[in-house]
Amino acid sequence: MAIRFEDIKEFIGSRVLWDDRADLFTAEAAKLIRAKVEERTVLVFPQVNLTDAEQLTITNAMGEKIRLTARNNVQSNDGDVYQVTLDEKINPQPEYVLGTFFWHMDGITVDMPPPFATLLSCRIAPDKGGETEFASTYAAYEGLPNEEKEALEGLKAVHSVRASLSPIADAIPEKHRERVLSIGLVKEHPLVWTHESGRKSMVVGTTADHIIGMNVPAGRAMLIRLQEWAAQPAFSLRHKWTQGDFVIWDNTGAMHRAIPYDKSTGRMMHRTSIAGTEAVAA
Predict the structure, then answer these.
(1) pTM for the full predicted model
(2) What domains sit in the chain, N to C, each tagged with a CATH number?
């Protein structure tokens, strides 16, 4: 086989191996990689050292490319590649990146299906912190006791950027705090997403503010318990970045977060995204 896969943990994560680097850019590889992302949630390509053009080649081969960028992010490279950094010369409002220190799913508060996958290349790896953690909400749902699965059926949560940034709201300069907190839409999503494939995952993370029909304390307590359940070691994976690493994950079945790091580390990631093909459905 031109490329092959090694499982990292029982329920999440595979490492991608290859003999000839050119084999990563074939149509056959794109099909295998997409299928493996759907199966294993997270794929790690160690020190593959992709250029932006190569990352876009893989992105386009796997599905329709989509831009998920803040309007005020100053790009110094291809506009289709988002630079994830705390460097204010590139990102003058780093609050969006600081918000990634907490469990979330991409694209939950936009008026389109959530992106199928996020693709991230490491250009500068910090010496301390900056790892990315992933938690499979497919595996977490499947691991719930049957009575808890039944209790979740039919429940919906309200999602917003305001909720996701609430842990860092005090760190946002007051002059533009309200504008930052009010970006995106307020969306209602079922707690349990029944995918077209028949598989089910949970839609949780810091964008989830409260559960419709439940009093706020009880609903928020449930949302935190579900996050904690999904983040337990059996269902989660922490990746320690090395320069040149490339990771793809199924955004429709995983939460992710960055371990906090200082902006002086220069951590730099290049991100692309693949459009989703289905809306969140009960």
Answers:
(1) 0.94
(2) 3-274 (3.60.130.10)
